[in-house]
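G., the chain you wanted modeled:
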Amino acid sequence: MSSSEGHTAGAGGASGVTVAAGESTFVYVTFIRATPQVLWEALTSRAFTERYWFGMHHECEWQTGASWSLRFPDGRVADSGEIVESDAPHRLVIRWRNMFRPELNAEGDSLCTLQIEPVEYAVKLTLTHRMGRQGSKFIEAVSGGWPRILSNLKTLLETGEALMPLVATDD
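Predicted structure as tokens:
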């Protein structure tokens, strides 16, 4: 396949890494039995985030232009960036940079978009995480992390308990 052709990989059509000329993109779509407002609160509330994101939490005001960070339970910064767009409870765009793995940090900023759409009896959450370079190790890393995080979120919202244990590592 030439570098200008696209390729998508993923199970069940719900997620995949797309490689196109000059960029790497991970997309994940899930349906969650919740309202857009409840999902927005779950995505932005520190206390709720800690319950599904393996003890990690965000520090942010959730306004366009605000600084953003994702922190390990011990307070170390895992990722940081800026809110590019905040349209509660519909759309959130974060300029995102890994801060704890030098090889991922060296790739620069990525863009993470969370789109929330009401559908009958649920909401559709579409996460798109994009890096402006081909073969991004960062996008490869998040393609393993996002399904776990969002599965935990979905299960927590629908059952009251997270699917996986609350253990964060910096591996």
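The two ends are 32 Å apart (CA to CA).

Shout if anything looks off.
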